[in-house]
């Protein structure tokens, strides 16, 4: 009863027919995800060995429009199949059951569960979903209460410093906006408070720069950049060998620059943080001048462009790196601010849950 599988790619067929465990399908817009999911549902409810009714399945979407489209497509497929096999009572039954099938948004499904089991949850049966304007008021009230409570705590130096570092006006609107923005983000994590605690640990001033999250990112980025320009210098030096006049002026500078860049790569790969900084600070592309008559030669201009680019990039990379004592100072400075911010978000989580 399943449509011709030749219409689907091997990966799509696997998504349609795969059974026996959890399956994740990741695909871009317009790649046929909805069509594949509809076919998976059809295959499931018409499976010859182990069929089920469509109202036994749970299908959740992010929008009402998507849920409506899903139902329409399933109904269309069932109607087509019934037209080919009008005596099939199972298909006819599925078309009837489709009206009460659990195909809805996440919010609607959760609301139906809560409405059915309100007595188990211990909440009033006349609950309803808050609209956007109501939630905005609750959020504003909650964050105001959070700020009042934090200001009321004596010797709350971390929070006061946080407020001073973020607020630029006469009120706390900017600080409130930062707290709400982080609140919205952490709610996408299953355990937001645990996530906040894990991120706070990243600001431990006992960490060495090369072992920190930022240090690792800086080293990885620097390695890619320096490797690229070392290869560029090697390639240009090789190309310039065929032009004796230019090579006589620029060849040694290119060889030295490529060698110095490779030294930096080696220090990065060893994780020698202070050594990398020393090499960045001592790096200098040797000054050279073009031979007479070669000022506008394409190869001479190529050398000049490479020299300028390398000098600029090395200078920019140096700004990414700070000495061990500077790093420790930054972490000691940031830790109480980040901790205060995270504590405010945790308090907001509790307030809004209430």
Q: Outline of this structure?
A:
67% of the residues lie in helices and 2% in strands. It starts with 9 loop residues before the first helix and ends with a helix. It contains 15 helices and 2 strands.
Describe the structure.
The chain has 354 residues and is mainly α. Helix content is 67%, strand content 2%. The chain contains 15 helices and two strands. It has helices at residues 10-17, 33-45, 64-84, 89-97, 106-116, 118-121, 132-152, 157-166, 173-186, 192-200, 213-240, 244-270, 273-282, 298-320, 324-353, and strands at 58-61, 102-105. A two-stranded parallel ribbon has the order 1-2. α3 runs antiparallel to α4. It is flat, with a radius of gyration of 32 Å.
Shape: flat
- Summed over residues and divided by their number, the pLDDT gives a mean of 92
Low-confidence region ranges:
none
Q: What is the succession of H and E elements?
A: HHEHHEHHHHHHHHHHH
Rounded to the nearest angstrom, the radius of gyration is: 32 Å
Tally the helices.
15
User: Largest beta sheet, briefly?
Assistant: 2 strands, parallel
Please report the total strand number as a whole number.
Answer: 2
Range of helix content: 55-70%
Distance between the termini: 51 Å
Q: Strands of the biggest beta sheet: in what spatial order?
A: 1-2
Note the beta-strand portion: under 5%
